[in-house]
Amino acid sequence: MWSKWGVDNLDKRVIEKNPDTVLIEFAINDAYLPHKTSVEQARSNLENMIGRILKSHPDCEIVLMVMNPPIGVHLERRPKVKDYCQMYRDVAKNRKLLLIDHYPKWEKLLNEARELFNKYVPDGLHPGPEGCKIVILSEIIKSLGVRHLRQSRVTCFPWNWNPLVMGYRNPVPLPSLALRDWHQSEKPSQTGCCDSSDTMSSTTR
Question: N or C: which terminus of the chain carries fewer CB neighbours within 10 A?
């Protein structure tokens, strides 16, 4: 799924959930050649989503994310992925939004510990549970300023094909972060979320 899907599904999957925080990340799939989405169109879609969320919920916190570099055939299918990632950085800077940029950490791991990168990103595109827990989760917690982590029904960080759902309570001195497997029977009420490698999750108090 890419940003066009996000634009088309924003109302039902996010805005109708009355979110107070939304995480958006579509860069890596917008870069996928078969989606035929230029950097300019990807930016337009991103700006569209941000604008509609803020129009409906002016106090909603929007967080942009940049993920890991793809390798092998996945990079061949995304030859300009760095341009899409940079676009997210530019939009975050221009709009003064929080950016959680995972790319530098993953790139460093790829260049200095390729075997470990391959272990954490076994298919060359999607980080597995261990990689998500060690690399992605730690960066999210750090960026959100979370000091206390409450984990529910999850023994590892669900990313591959299990959407990220966060109950980020704000404002509080020590916000809590609740991780739940979206496929568990107890689904957090009033929480919307998109899929797999791309994330557009809305969270409510």
Answer: C
Q: How confident is the model at residue 149 (pLDDT cuts 50, 70, 90)?
A: low
Closest by CA to 26, choosing from 151, 134, 13, is: 13
How sure is the predictor about 101, in pLDDT bands with cuts at 50, 70 and 90?
A: very high
| Domains: count for the chain | 1
DSSP class of 171: S
How high is the pLDDT of residue 172?
29
What is the number of other CB atoms lying within 10 angstroms of the CB of residue 161? 11
Task: Using alpha carbons only, give the angle 67, 71, 75 rounded to the nearest 5 degrees.
Answer: 85
Q: Is the pLDDT of residue 38 over 90?
A: yes
The boundaries of the domain holding residue 16 are 3-203
| CATH number of the domain bearing residue 16 | 3.40.50.1110
Nearest 5°: phi and psi at 200? Answer: -140, 85
Query: Cβ(165)–Cβ(130) under 8 Å?
Result: no
